[in-house]
Amino acid sequence: MTNQYINDNFLLTSSLAQHLYHSYAKAMPIIDYHNHLEAKEIWEDYSLDNIAQCWLHSDHYLWRAMRSNGVDEHYITGDASDREKFEKWCETAPYILGNPLYQWCHLELKRFFNSPLLLNCTNSDAIWAQSQSELASGKLSARQVLKQCQVATLCTTDSPLSDLKYHQLLASSDFNVAVLPTFRADDLFAFNNAEHFAKTLNALERLTSGNITNLDDFLNAIQSRIEAFHNAGCRLSDLGLTVVEFAPCTHNQATTIFDKIRRKQVVEDSEVVQIKSYLFNELGRSYHARGWAMQLHIGVLVNVNERRKHALGGGTGFSVMNDRLIAENLVQLLSALDSSSQLPKTVLYSLNPNHNPILSCIAGAFQDSDTANGKIQFGAAWWFNDHKDGMEAQLTTLKNLGALGRFIGMLTDSRNIFSMSRHEYFRRVLCNQLAQWVEGGELPNDEMLLRKTVENICFNNAQSYFNFPQSSDLKGNVQ
Questions:
Q1: Pairwise CA distance, residues 60 & 130, whole Å
Q2: How many domains does the chain have?
Q3: Closest Cα partner for 132 from 39, 243, 75, 50?
Q4: Which residues in the chain come in under a pLDDT of 50?
Q5: C-alpha closest to that of 286 among 228, 359, 214
Q6: How far is CA 388 from CA 14, 86, 398, in A?
Q7: Residues 311 and 289 sit within 8 Å (Cβ to Cβ)
Q8: What angle do CA 152, 111, 127 make, to 5 degrees?
Q9: What pLDDT shows up at residue 470?
Q10: What pLDDT does residue 474 have?
């Protein structure tokens, strides 16, 4: 049977919330400044064969939910057919009622597949058939979805070792969505994994046509890659800090430690912290010089289930929130850059919501007017927090401890092209939250103030903050 679960006023609980969303938020373009889509697939304008490819081939969010419902791994990451996997997802959905996955999937069904049906065993066949029909229409290719969602700019997440070929092809094409790379620096920090680091050095040598025999060579090779990313339109970096550590380190000390690592000699844990801190500072200075923003993703305890990691590999749904202390070392990392007035624009995210007030307070301690309004951002609700309650908690913390009106808004952090609908989800949550504050007397019921706040958070702030290049500038950089 049909239902009106996803209706015009989904998540909008008052007339003011409905007015703010429908009059202002809904029409704003999208800047998705952090996701894990592939530029190659956008260039090729790929289309899915079925809805299971979209939801169940790589989404560890859904995998975790299916495991919680007792689904055998054969139907999750195993070799069951796509149809069988989809049926198991439909079987799972009623048991995760209220979970954001339940809300997101129904929003995607409505927006892209024109289906008002609830996910369950009874509706499985009808939803599969309807989604197949929509996919066969040709209206749901990667580029078509981005256009349909009014995406203006999309920033992928890319290793420094990427050749950026497909970003360059997109920049030289007539596709009017700017697809820009993000410099994800994690590979450069793998000092405590000798094999991985050796492969990184070899790849850097190939990309930069030079030998890396010492720390200065390493830094020069990184600068070459940063310049290549910049010319391809990159204006953001990213780094995952599973542990936030800091130790002072001079250039001479870093040189000595690097030589030991390159020769695969024993390196103390304290030395690894030193050279990581040194590299963090060097990269931050480079980002600042180019006007980039630096994203820091904090608080993941990775792959905690050793048996499952051995069987399925990393990144398959077994990472959790970390409760390590972060404040003292994080402020030292930022202060080391700030001491020379070279702290770049920075976006701070934590997987642990207990860190919300900590990050917001830290952001306030390093604000400056040298590069952007709201230079240090307390970032959007991330991963285990990007649901209604988590978004409201992030917005509330920012209201109480920061400058809500300077917030650069939401992102998808997803490999699913249809997750662009999560911007709609966030905008509905935002408008509803603002309306509740107005109705509670915390904010004035001022039309122009509320309109400006909504439009700025949805689009304008990110556009101003990141200062993305014009498409004509990118075309000029394509070789």
A1: 25
A2: 2
A3: 50
A4: 1-2, 479
A5: 228
A6: 16, 25, 15
A7: no
A8: 140
A9: 81
A10: 76
